[in-house]
Amino acid sequence: MDGDLRYGICPVCGKNATLKCGSCRREFYCDKSHQSQDWPRHRSTCNGWEIDRDPVLGRHLLATRDLAPGDVILTETPLVWGPSIHDANQRVCVGCGERCDDVDARCSGCCWPVCRLDCEGLSDKKRHQLECVLLARVRIVPRCEVLLIIRLLILWRMKSRRWTSLANLQNHVESRGPGTEAHDEVLKGSVAIYEHASLLEHSCIANTRHSFRIDDKGRPRITIYAVTSIKKGEHLSTMYTHALWSTRARREHLLTTKYFACRCKRCADPTELGTHLGTLNCPCKNGLILPNDPLNPNTNWSCDTCPGTITSAEIAELTHRLEEEVVEVMKQATEYTLSELLSRLTVLLHPGHQHCISVSHSLIQLLPATDPRKSELCKRIMDTVSRLDPYGTRLTLYTAVTLRELAMCPGEDKRVHLAKAVLLLKAEPPNSPGERLRRLIEVEL
């Protein structure tokens, strides 16, 4: 990808260059003077995006030029970042946010945990060195979950430009609080707030992907890439919810945590692009039960063959009950329990329903290669994934696992499937589950 290149040709003198444009990260220069000299030309192509405003969408990003798959759209470090609430035994580096394995490594100034004594983030004068003095002076007991709050207060006290940018972001604070899904969602993981990347709008079939890398100052840099051809003026989008949830589940999640209802092409299609992720089987044995109006949460559901109908409330009750059953079986899943559960689910649900796909994905990892169901289930999952994640951005690990299981089946081209899996996982972060799976598959190739 363009954003990963380490050197290029200076457009001013034609020599090899390593100084990368900090905005687009696609152009290289010999030095700052050549970069300044080239700015009148480069300005029009530097950023591939601009901020637009809409009464419904609010602020969002538009492409300012035609973008090809793999193009870097933007890259930036966060306005502020920090760990969220972690397990009591979890130690996070105060410099870069990485997990700390060395229990004795601590910052020499404030005595907070660090991943290593020479962590790049510890020397950042605009970040940890500011908070380090405060942490040392007041002797706050190291608690990872308060670090983000401290950093926000420092920005506010300094009247920083970053604080002004943060204050301009939408927060929906009046709607969030204990008991809401939004409150529960923020209890996990780490938090980083990006000034421009946060303006990507939602789409259930997004046209961008993003990656994170720790930069030379210990900051989590986000890079946004195009995953398909994007025309000048088109909206830039990402996905805020789960790709393998049905429309009803996705829209409910978005409404309760992001405060909007998606109306994209996938949400408007009763069959969800032919995947039937939310479709039920009709008792008439010949038809499928689909929503009359997928964009109306209270719509009735009807059979496409007979006059039978069912209310939205009944659909919600049934799917919730089945979800509880799936969760319970998954706690101690075996080949037998998953097979038996899938058989019962497919009486009521379309084989492509989200619950059936979820159970199938676990089952294929337990079935022997000689079982004909393994190949059949793998191919069904791959068909679903190819429709919902056509650019291989949201379900890479999920898809790679499926391809690896399919490669084991008799009559399948093992090398082709494994090569596809490796290609999907090539951008996975170091030491991530995806990167570890990629290394395993490369050995199997």
From TrEMBL:
Is-annotated flag, keyword Zinc?
Answer: yes
- Report domain SET positions: 47-241
Domain (MYND-type) ranges: 10-46
Cited SUPFAM superfamilies: HIT/MYND zinc finger-like, SET domain
Database matches in InterPro entries: SET_dom, SET_dom_sf, SET_SmydA-8, TPR-like_helical_dom_sf, Znf_MYND
Q: Name one Pfam family in it.
A: zf-MYND
Any single GO molecular-function term of the entry would be: N-methyltransferase activity
Q: Does the keyword Zinc-finger apply?
A: yes
Keywords on record? Metal-binding, Zinc, Zinc-finger
* Name the UniProt record assigns to this protein: Protein msta, isoform B
